[in-house]
Amino acid sequence: MSSSSLPEDLPSPPEIASSIFGDRLGVASAFVAILADTGVSHGLIGPREVPRLWDRHVLNCAVIGEAMPERSVPVVDVGSGAGLPGVALAIARPDLQVHLVEPMARRTAWLSTTVESLGLTNVEVHRGRAEDFRGSLSGRYVTARAVARLPKLLAWCAPLTDVGGHIVAMKGTSASEELGEARPVLKKWHLVDARVTTVGDALPDPTTVVIFRRGSRR
Asked: By Cβ atoms counted within 10 A, which residue in 80, 97, 133, 142 is the most buried?
């Protein structure tokens, strides 16, 4: 990817980015450039999103690591799409082993190329639906962004969550409403301690997440 191919409105990293990514800010900047280039041409990111790739997408996703205090544990990103939040999280938290689950071949090919280009040794791409990996893939944390409303999303994420692990679902203003919709199915999926909270409070617009802990099946 040559510099001449990049859009003129590619944003520079805001000051807060250095505190979130530290010495991996260069890798995060390379990811933003890829999103602005092939992410747009492959239909993963809308061209109007390019000027706000940092604030609305990459930083917004990277900070969910605050909800994952354990180190050196697996994380499953369901419906990874453009690598949001999975790739952004993997850059900010190289201690985590991030598994990107995506059913579309075109997207998994793009993800694999992007992961290789960025040199991310802590990321593995899996092609398939979440249901395809029940019993073969699980994480201490399972996350998703803009995939489905909570009642449906939990049916995909809970079976991939270790007992004692957590689902960290990225949601916006609908978080409390969706949590209310999901309460009738929490027992079915052995989910407890459900709560809405924010991470990345240093950002102009903190990220809202809904967190669930997966209890035992007793």
From this structure: 142
User: Where do we find the tokens 């209310």?
Assistant: 180
- Any idea which residue has 């979130």 for tokens? 20
Domain residues for the domain of 181 are 63-214
CATH of the domain at 184: 3.40.50.150
Q: How many CA atoms lie within 13 A of 162 on its CB side?
A: 11
Residue 122 lies in a domain: yes
The Cα–Cα gap between 57 and 21 comes to: 14
Classify residue 68: in a domain, yes or no. Answer: yes
Number of domains in the chain: 1
> Can you count the helices (H) and strands (E) in the chain?
8, 7
Residue 144 is assigned to a structural domain of this protein: yes
**What average pLDDT values come out for the chain (218 residues) when binned by 10 residues?**
55 94 97 96 94 95 97 97 97 98 97 98 98 96 94 97 97 94 96 97 95 87
DSSP letters along 25-44, please?
HHHHHHHHHHIIIIIHHTTS
Evaluate whether residue 167 is within a structural domain.
yes
In total, the chain counts a number of residues equal to 218
DSSP state of 81: T
Kindly state the tokens that stand for 51.
Answer: 């000027």
The reported pLDDT for the residue numbered 8 is 63
Tokens representing 90? 């993997």
Contact of 212 with 155, CB cutoff 8 Å: no
Residue 216: per-residue pLDDT = 83
Q: What pTM was estimated for this model as a whole?
A: 0.94
